[in-house]
Design goal:
By secondary structure, the protein is α+β, with helices and mostly antiparallel strands. The protein has a single domain, classed as Alpha-Beta Plaits (2-Layer Sandwich). A hairpin with a 6-residue loop joins strand 2 and strand 3. Helix 2 crosses helix 6.
Length: 244
Amino acid sequence: MTADTSRRDVLKAAAGVTLLAPGLTLIAAAPAEAGRAPGMPANASNRWGLLIDTTKCDSGCSACVDACKTEMALPSHGRPLTDAQYIRKVTVKDPKSGYTHSLPVMCQHCAKPPCVDVCPTGASMKRADGIVLVDRHICIGCRYCMMACPYKARSFAHEDQTGQAPHNPRGKGCVEACTLCAHRVDAGGRPACVEACAATGKAAMLFGDLGDPGSEISRRVAKEATTRIRADLGVDPAIRYQGI
């Protein structure tokens, strides 16, 4: 080992991590801001987030989950506990009334993400506009971020990857999670889960800029009762819920 061998290289070798295929590049830490010309940096004045109305979310509907798998090219290997899943449906129950709600849970894109705090290489990162990502080029697969995440929102790629989507390069031995469809946001669009939910006619998911007081999501959050999962942790999630 030469003196200029980096700590990152040593850790990668120890972890046996397989790097991404040549030519595949993760979405950069400062990509284009949604609604602006490509090449413009992410803007700290934006805070992209979701408002999810659980009263409109049917327990039997998996449109958001299915759309995410298709958009991000996440295959099933027949192992539900280890297959990559960026968004999942969970059922919560009021212990007093017994009333249940079905709701989607994904990376909460926290303002103070615990996953970023514990990452030893900087692979877990937060863009200027609040979107939390994993740079799989420098992820060593230690999975500290998975343990730190209070929402169990991260997956680990156990398999060699084939048929990858250009906007979601994946690598065996890397951690991954919801990107809030940053590639769509940067092009001025909405996440695939939001589009799919709208297509069902339920429109339970609202995407928008929490940093813009005039946006629909900001107006609703200001006027209507909303909840953040484990708000007591102080990590300030960008995903808000109604009806729970």
